[in-house]
Write a structure and sequence with these properties.
heterodimer; A: alpha/beta; eight-stranded mixed sheet; four-stranded antiparallel sheet; 13 helices; B: mainly alpha; 15 helices; 74% helix; 0% strand; globular
Chain lengths: 337, 350
């Protein structure tokens, strides 16, 4: 699935950069990130609020409002073409068809004045050129697929007649309606109860296996991604600061920020009374990014070099993944001490 | 829904009684005596007294306390208001004091003229205001948006009478493109069906009549439409701006829907509730605005009629027309309330 080096990636992102022009200045939301996503891969994109993980996904979909937004540089190769160079009309044929998206808040992500069924049918009628009754049959199948009971009856319900978990299921049904090659799930469980969260995660894992699509799962919760994803991109201040297979990241955490993220998770094995680690300070101001490492101000391992030069992602062979830190060797005890 | 409509209709009754009271009261607060207005300033006291008696103007306004003191119970209730209300119950709006013609008869003649003018003005306001509001919300801070905001601010602020006079000056007096008043040129005949001239001329295939009626109605309709257009534009714009921030708009775009479908299908239906409310209120303002517009353009509708009647202290006419306007306003607002349930499935009147 993700081990084949010969496999052609589904999506290849190069130097993607997104900024917003605001009254206070230019916000550097995404700062030249590059990575690849394989077919059938589940990628976790992790980071705290405002680290650019959602903006980078919306940039891929070209759903950034321009202005105030701008994508001044970068390439997003998907299916052999650069999405950033497509016309708006061509891009519309990608959205919802080849790449679909599920959003954070199912309460507000469905249009309250149309039935759930209609909102699912809409994409089918648009991309699959189905007529209304064909779309209805397919939409009911999809509602069944995502585990909504009495789907035929539920087809004519309005969103306010659905619970939060059911709405997110409906959102997933809508996203999957045209069998996309990539599903981007932007914190789809954040607004849900813990038990419902698990159901939604299991649903997506099951559907991913059944349909064979790739999934990008955006979250601030490392605990969630650990169980389901293949690879992780850890983002900080619009940069990818660590990236690799999930086991490598968990077993050989290299970046001090990732360590902080993992340390801030409560663990069931810890002795009662163990204090959770919190990362001191705040992320840098995206309007005035520091010249050096973006994590410099909060890092306990910082040295003068970190202040002067920004570390690039480099391959840390010993740990089996890539990291953007000057001192990863010393921190982990690899190589020179 | 049926029960809700019934309840709303019943609630119209006390409102209407209140309206008759207010109309009656305000009439009495305007200085001047209709009998004097009728007979002229130099009429002798005897004639004035006779006229006052003939129209019941010598009776007390609401209740006759003197009659009650004398133990005369029917006399106690024999007042101007009670008489007026009793006639209303029989759908009798009374007669004009000056011309002695039943008000209902003149109303039949004049009301269609006002309806035609108001409907056209409202249509202009909707057809212009809503699309421009949508467009300027979707192109926020663009040149179009700025022009819309300035234009609509001017539109709300400009006095109708001034605008009307300027229109007449330019289009009728200087350029001589449009007639300055009335509904039709003399010599043009349109066979009456609904008494809405544009409609009647269309129905009878009378193109000459249609063109003439259209040229006559153009200026007054535009004047009357100015304020509602501006207000509907602003309301549509701000309501759309709110809705366009919503997550479900992003969902719709993420589905691959075109901007046009996102705007008109997903955003507009949500943005329409506040707009509908404003349209309902504007319908009332429109009828009030008709008084000014009709006066300026000598439009033979109820607005001009009520204006003339106020000057002549012809109370029954003012009362009748005001009541009619109040009823229209109530009906329009009932329709507005019912339309909420059609637009938003979360609203239910059960």
């Amino acid at each position: 699935m993700t081990n084949g080096t010969a496999m052609k990636p589904l999506m290849e992102i190069k130097n993607l950069t997104t900024r917003f022009y605001t009254q206070d200045g230019v916000v550097n939301a995404v700062n030249g990130i590059s990575y690849t996503l394989d077919p059938g891969e589940i990628l976790g994109v992790v980071g705290e609020s405002g680290c650019g993980k959602s903006v980078h996904a919306l940039s891929i979909m070209r759903l950034i409002q321009i202005p105030p937004g701008e994508i001044p540089a970068g390439e997003v190769f998907f299916g052999g073409r650069d999405l950033l160079k497509l016309s708006e009309r061509e891009m519309r044929m990608v959205r919802g068809h080849e790449i679909a998206m599920v959003f954070q808040d199912p309460m507000s992500s469905l249009n309250p004045v149309y039935t759930v069924g209609f909102q699912i049918s809409e994409a089918l009628m648009l991309h699959k050129k189905m007529n209304r009754s064909q779309a209805k049959v397919r939409a009911i199948e999809l509602l069944n697929l995502v585990g909504i009971p009495e789907a035929t009856k539920r087809f004519d319900n309005y969103p306010h007649q659905f619970s939060g978990g059911m709405r997110q299921r409906a959102m997933i049904a809508m996203a999957l309606s045209c069998e996309p090659k990539l599903l981007i799930a932007d914190e789809p469980t954040t607004a849900l109860d813990v038990t419902i969260q698990a159901q939604i995660i299991n649903l997506v894992i099951r559907l991913q296996e059944e349909l064979g699509m790739s999934v990008m799962w955006i979250t601030h919760d490392l605990g969630i991604v650990a169980e389901m994803v293949h690879r992780i991109n850890v983002m900080y201040a619009g940069f990818i600061i660590e990236r690799g297979f999930v086991d490598d990241i968990y077993n050989h955490t290299l970046h001090p920020y990732t360590m902080g993220l993992l340390g801030s998770l409560p663990s069931i094995d810890e002795a009662p009374g163990t204090k959770l680690i919190s990362i001191p300070g705040l992320p840098p101001d995206l309007i005035a990014l520091p010249e050096g490492c973006p994590f410099f101000a909060r890092c306990t391992y910082r040295v003068e070099q970190c202040h002067q030069e920004r570390p690039q992602l480099e391959n840390a062979q010993e740990a089996g993944h890539t990291v953007a830190c000057w001192r990863w060797r010393e921190i982990q005890g690899f190589g020179v001490a | 829904m049926g029960r809700y409509i019934l309840r709303r209709l019943l609630s119209v009754i006390p409102t209407l009684i209140g309206v008759t009271l207010v109309i009656f009261l305000f009439q009495r607060l305007i200085p001047g005596d209709p009998a004097v207005a009728m007979l002229g300033e130099h009429a002798n006291a005897e004639n004035v007294a006779r006229i006052r008696e003939q129209f019941g103007l010598d009776k007390p306004a609401f209740l006759d306390r003197d009659a009650l003191a004398e133990g005369d119970l029917p006399g106690f209730f024999d007042s101007q208001y009670v008489r007026y209300f009793g006639r209303l119950l029989q759908f009798d709006l009374g007669e004009s004091i000056h011309r002695r013609i039943p008000i209902a008869e003149t109303l039949k003649e004049r009301f269609p003229a006002t309806v035609e003018l108001s409907l056209l003005a409202m249509s202009i306001a909707l057809v212009v205001g809503i699309p421009i509001g949508i467009l300027s919300a979707s192109r926020r801070n663009s040149f179009l948006d700025g022009a819309t905001m300035i234009g609509s601010l001017v539109g709300v602020s400009v006095p109708i009478f001034w605008l009307g006079i300027m229109e007449i000056m330019f289009f009728a007096v200087i350029m001589k493109w449009l007639p300055s008043g009335s509904r039709l040129s003399s010599g043009i005949v349109i066979k009456p069906i609904t008494n809405l001239l544009l409609l009647d001329s269309l129905l009878t295939g009378n193109w000459v009549g249609f063109k003439d009626a259209f040229l006559h109605i153009l200026m007054p309709a535009i004047s009357l439409a100015t304020i509602p257009t501006a207000i509907i534009t602003r309301m549509t714009r701000s309501s759309m701006l709110d809705v366009l921030q919503e997550d479900y708009i992003r969902t719709a775009s993420a589905k691959g829907l075109s901007e046009r479908i996102v705007l008109f299908r997903h955003a507009l239906k949500n943005a329409f509730l506040p707009v509908i409310t404003i349209i309902g209120i504007q319908a009332g303002t429109l009828l009030a605005g008709a008084v000014l517009t009709e006066t300026i353009f000598s439009w033979p509708g109820i607005g001009k009629w009520v204006y003339d009647s106020i000057l002549g202290r012809d109370y029954p006419i003012v009362q009748g027309v005001t009541l009619l306007i109040a009823i229209i306003f109530l009906v329009v607002n009932l329709l507005v309330d019912l339309s909420y349930a059609l637009l938003d499935p979360r609203i239910s009147y059960e």
